[in-house]
Amino acid sequence: MVRAAYDWTMRLGSRPRAVWPLALVSFSESSFFPIPPDVLLIPMVLAARERAWFLAAVCSVSSVVGGLFGYAIGYFLYATFGRWLIAAYGLEEAFVRFQADFAEWGLWVILIKGLTPIPFKIVTIASGAAHFDLTVFILALIVTRAGRFFLVSALLWRFGVPIRSFIEGNLTWLLLLVAALVVGGFLLVRYVV
Q: Which terminal residue of the chain, N or C, has fewer Cβ atoms less than 10 Å from its own Cβ?
């Protein structure tokens, strides 16, 4: 099943319409969805390395727009939908800590957390709920999200063949690692950060 999903993503990656699922996942991950867009970006870049920069741009722009949606959830809907979403992930205490961090560190919280496995939707919703300066927020989103996705794409573009061989040879273990990072990011936010 894992192999079939990987093969499907590789076939999808070379098609022109592949950007739409990538954009949707990237948008969603920044505002409410738990799966990072890297699970699509990596195989798609490996399937069509000549599109690496384009795919990184799609991922970056979609993530920034999704981040603005997350900000809007926090700013306008925190009392209803935002609070429910945070509770659905079991991150109420972490959210309170994020708000305290914003009061003290602001921009640095967004820049650092945007590059880590910590669920980014928590950062975007917390930024909106804290009424963080929107212009600074947008600039921080652009820096962190574009930096992350362009770095991943650049590494895949440069070292694509050996990376693809490694991924295909260790697919199940790598999928488990990604799952562990996603779960670990949530646990880190819930119990540590």
A: N
